[in-house]
Amino acid sequence: MTRIVLAISGATGSIYGIKLLEEFHKADVETQLIISESAKKTIALETDYLLDDISKMASQQFPSWDIASPPASGSFLHQGMVIAPCSMKTLSAIANGYADNLINRAADVTIKERRKLILLVRETPLSPIHLENMLKLARLGVIIMPPVLSFYHHPKTIEDMMKQMVGRVFDQLGIENSLVKRWPGIMEM
């Protein structure tokens, strides 16, 4: 079975983490969920989801303050970690090895164990500091994946746009899915 560590940080766009969790649940992917304290506030502000309902979709959930939880150890096996959304604070902490909470520590461990780490970074515009931190991590093999919308699949709803992004994360993790509408190529006129 595929096991993924999924973290939701406090940046706007908490719906990305929630939608990932929903689709992981549907795909029978084991999820180890970490929600930051700031993310709990963002979820309440941006969505109609209740924290209890979100937690029920996860295989297991750990408090963000508990750095003794299994995802804090390299001996805890998983196929990858996704932080969706990833705040600039979290990005900076990871880029600089500041493992002061479980999200940052689990990401640090994911890097040191050479496992896949995907960050759906959320900020605009990006400052030189943000870009330097992203470049630093990209050079270590971290996948920097801002949730950029695509339009070639002619999305009709926000849900269509969300599914495309979630499906692209699945692609990066090597998880088969039918969420992504694939690029058909350009037809001759």
Automatic annotation (TrEMBL):
Gene3D superfamilies: Flavin prenyltransferase-like (3.40.50.1950)
Family matches, as Pfam families: Flavoprotein
A molecular-function term among this protein's GO annotations: flavin prenyltransferase activity
EC number: 2.5.1.129
Class of enzymatic activity (EC top level): transferase
Domain (Flavoprotein): residue spans on this chain: 3-173
Signal peptide boundaries: none
Protein residues bound to FMN: G10, A11, T12, S36, S87, M88, K89, T90, R122
Top-level lineage group: Bacteria
Keywords recorded for this protein, A-Z: Flavoprotein, FMN, Prenyltransferase, Transferase
Residues the record lists as binding dimethylallyl phosphate: Y152, R168
Catalyses which reaction(s): dimethylallyl phosphate + FMNH2 = prenylated FMNH2 + phosphate
HAMAP family: ubiX_pad
Family note: Belongs to the UbiX/PAD1 family.
Function of the molecule: Flavin prenyltransferase that catalyzes the synthesis of the prenylated FMN cofactor (prenyl-FMN) for 4-hydroxy-3-polyprenylbenzoic acid decarboxylase UbiD. The prenyltransferase is metal-independent and links a dimethylallyl moiety from dimethylallyl monophosphate (DMAP) to the flavin N5 and C6 atoms of FMN.
PANTHER family the record matches: FLAVIN PRENYLTRANSFERASE, FLAVIN PRENYLTRANSFERASE PAD1, MITOCHONDRIAL
This protein's name: Flavin prenyltransferase UbiX
Source organism: Desulfoscipio gibsoniae DSM 7213
